[in-house]
Amino acid sequence: MRHEASPRPVEPRALHFGDEASRQDAAHLGMWIFLATEVLLFSVLFTAYALYRLTYPGVFQQAPAHMDVFLGTLNTFVLVSSSILVALAVDAIRNGRDFAAAALLALSVLLGIAFLFIKAAEYTKHVHDGALPGAWYAYEAFALPGANLYFTLYWVMTGVHAVHVLVGVGVLVTLALRTLAGEFGARFHTPVELGGMYWHLVDVVWLFLWPLLYLT
Amino acid sequence: MAPSHAEPSVAGPSYLDAERGLWSWLTTRDHKRIGVMFLAVLLLMFLLGGVFALALRVELLTPGETVMGRLAYNRAFTVHGVVMVWLFLIPSIPTAFGNFLLPLMIGARDVAFPRLNLASFYLYMLGAVMTLWGVFQGGVDTGWTFYTPYSTVTGREVMPVLLGVFVVGFSTILTGINFITTVHTMRAPGVTWMKVPLFVWALYGTSIIQVLATPVLGMVLMLVALERVAGAGLFDPSRGGDPLLYQHLFWFYSHPAVYIMVLPGMGVISETVCAFSRKRPFSYRVIVWSTVGISFVGFLTWGHHMFVSGQSTFGAGAFSVLSMLVAIFTAMKIFTWLGTMYRGSLWVSTPFTYVLGFIFLLFFGGMSGVAVAVTSADLHWHDTYFVVAHFHFIMVGASLMAFLAALHYWFPKMFGRMYPEGMGIGTAVLIIFGFIATFLPQFLLGNLGMPRRYADYPEAFQPLHVASTAGASLLGFGFLIVAVYLGWSLRHGRAAGRNPWGSEGYEWLSDSPPPEFNFHAPPRFPRPPHDYANPGANTEVEHAA
């Protein structure tokens, strides 16, 4: 039964799990713990944001007026849509529709790349304005004390998030290719589910960054 | 009770012989080999950190400049601290002994993610190389805590060290994820949560701290790096930032890190106390729940590092009380160990000698911890040798004694050989005595007002410094003897047999050294570990399939 459950040969070291179900359990638990570490990684930035928002309340309320709210909101829609596509891909692969799963993954990759391009366009605007982090800050239209801290946090938070998007795109591309190669199917699809979980986390983090940095 | 000697080993090569050649080691996914590789590298790091410790003690032998200038002294204590804390103490027991023993102790073939385990080793190596490269590039003088704003303005070599520590942190996280998942999903039939060996419980608690605290450290080190590159200003008051934020975030990791160092040690002691008292633990449940308690409360104490940094009075008071809570859980543990020994059939072996040293030093170091947790007393002792002595009692006195106890207790399991027992006990006594001689004078120095991190001091302090340096020399000599006789025993020690201590821990049911997949057949554990009422009740089942 065990060999039927997995299309790939099971190595002796993994035999101890007994069956595919408990291997999956272990993989999922490991991923959940990893996602918890990611949340804590971002929590440092959220803590810093909270502290400086308390210190410079005026600055943090005026700053969104200097952001491109349209592009930020567009990016939210892009990322949420790709997250939905990934969820559909996971559903497809569970039901054995391999090609549909690969296609959905490919679409969400495109949206991920679109997100990065929109982000890059935004960054270009900030560079043009001189709204750079720390010592490089030279945005004359918004020169209150503490404004440099807002933009420092903006760059760090969205930058770290963008790195995660980049990694996520790489993961999704790999998953799509391996799905096309027939490695995953109704019987074995743990990597697709784990990759999906990661992508949802990236999405969720953005859903916190968006109101903090663009709205108010 | 006399040790039960070499039963003839039946079948199968051990993990050491299953494959041969350097390449088979470097690409192994066997948790036991990874543990041994970690052990080898960690011992090298310990040697490096120890050499710098002795250099510091030599400099402090006389007032004024003895062997090095002030900048060199700052760099030397930074190397000592960085290497000992980040590259030795934090990874030591979990990566070396945890990797080797955790699967054996729950009857598993390996950890849940063997490839991730190897990745963790290489990340550690990469981080260690980056850190040391920065350190020897010219030296870092920030101390191991990298306090801002100083760390953002001093020499460029801080960058590789920050990034190196960041990478080592990743290795820690991966090990933590692996251990938690393994304990949850890979326990053999019969190993219920309340039958999990105590060392595994300690590793589990440690892993939770590692997983929850290390990302915070990683990000804050990134922010310091950014501060250096872009003048980010988050921790720089001249740009509107708050330097205290760095301390909050840093100690949010680094205070729990103390429990990353001590908890696995406590697990080692719980195992060895049972084995050498020939008794089941005095309240398994108290030991387990105090482990969980320390993992939890450890997160709530970080503010006691900032009593004099401009923290609010209320904050200081709250952190003071929360810090004292740790002592309650620690005391619970000490009572259970003493209760286990009480009316036990004590066997004074080398590991047990270290256990006795551990209990005494932990008690002493812990009580001085309660003393410095009192805000008013801390004002007097803050940043003096009193604090240095206190944390060396915990980190060296407790972690290192437990490390040595583990090394001697599991040496036969890992390598299948015994070491000269008389030599072991004698050296253990020497090391404990050398330790007390080194750090007891430092309590007195601190109380007299000798500040930490100073290369120079008034004449009046010299007798105590001389005593401390003399103790450090004894300590170094003791480690040298341990290295010599353990190295000799690797080759020439007599064969240990499956269970030389007659222990009832699950790991001793496997051969010494264990075969490649730990057990020849799936093991059955109907009895709890450390159950000395029914010796030999747990068995390895032949041909269960």
From TrEMBL, chain A:
- Biological process (GO), any one: aerobic electron transport chain
Family annotation (Pfam families): COX3
Membrane topology type, per the record? Answer: Multi-pass membrane protein
Any one GO CC term of the record = plasma membrane
Query: Which UniProt keywords are present, listed alphabetically?
Result: Membrane, Transmembrane, Transmembrane helix
Heme-copper oxidase subunit III family profile domain: residues covered: 1-216
Membrane-traversing stretches: 29-52, 73-93, 99-118, 153-177, 197-215
> Does the entry feature the keyword Metal-binding, yes or no?
no
The record's annotation in SUPFAM superfamilies points to: Cytochrome c oxidase subunit III-like (SSF81452)
Chief location of this protein within or outside the cell: membrane
InterPro entries tied to this protein: Cyt_c/ubiquinol_Oxase_su3, Cyt_c_oxidase-like_su3, Cyt_c_oxidase_su3-like_sf, Cyt_c_oxidase_su3_a-hlx
GO MF, one example = cytochrome-c oxidase activity
Localization recorded for this chain is: Cell membrane; Membrane
Q: Which family does it belong to?
A: Belongs to the cytochrome c oxidase subunit 3 family.
Q: Output this protein's name.
A: Cytochrome C oxidase subunit III
Q: Which species expresses this protein natively? A: Myxococcus xanthus
Automatic annotation (TrEMBL), chain B:
What sort of enzyme, by top EC class, is this?
translocase
Residue span(s) of domain Cytochrome oxidase subunit I profile: 17-526
A GO MF label: heme binding
Q: Does the keyword Transmembrane helix apply?
A: yes
Recorded hits in InterPro entries, A to Z, give:
Cyt_c_oxase-like_su1_dom, Cyt_c_oxase-like_su1_sf, Cyt_C_Oxase_1, Cyt_c_Oxase_su1_BS, Cyt_c_oxidase_su1_bac
Question: Nuclease as a keyword?
Answer: no
Where located? Cell membrane; Membrane
Reactions catalysed according to its record: 4 Fe(II)-[cytochrome c] + O2 + 8 H(+)(in) = 4 Fe(III)-[cytochrome c] + 2 H2O + 4 H(+)(out)
Any Gene Ontology CC annotation: plasma membrane
Residue span of region Disordered: 519-545
Membrane-topology annotation of the record: Multi-pass membrane protein
Q: What are the EC numbers?
A: 7.1.1.9
What are the alphabetically sorted keywords of the record?
A: Cell membrane, Copper, Electron transport, Heme, Iron, Membrane, Metal-binding, Respiratory chain, Translocase, Transmembrane, Transmembrane helix, Transport
Source species, domain of life: Bacteria
Gene3D superfamilies, per this entry?
Cytochrome c oxidase-like, subunit I domain (1.20.210.10)
What pathway is this protein a component of? Answer: Energy metabolism; oxidative phosphorylation
User: Where would you find the membrane-spanning parts of this chain?
Assistant: 34-56, 76-104, 116-138, 158-180, 201-225, 245-270, 282-302, 314-340, 352-374, 386-411, 423-444, 464-488
Q: Which GO terms describe its biological process?
A: aerobic respiration; electron transport coupled proton transport; respiratory electron transport chain
Entry's family note: Belongs to the heme-copper respiratory oxidase family.
Provide the function of this protein. Answer: Cytochrome c oxidase is the component of the respiratory chain that catalyzes the reduction of oxygen to water. Subunits 1-3 form the functional core of the enzyme complex. CO I is the catalytic subunit of the enzyme. Electrons originating in cytochrome c are transferred via the copper A center of subunit 2 and heme A of subunit 1 to the bimetallic center formed by heme A3 and copper B.
- Its name, as the record gives it, is Cytochrome c oxidase subunit 1
- Give the species this sequence originates from: Myxococcus xanthus
Q: Identify the taxonomic lineage of the organism of origin.
A: Bacteria, Pseudomonadati, Myxococcota, Myxococcia, Myxococcales
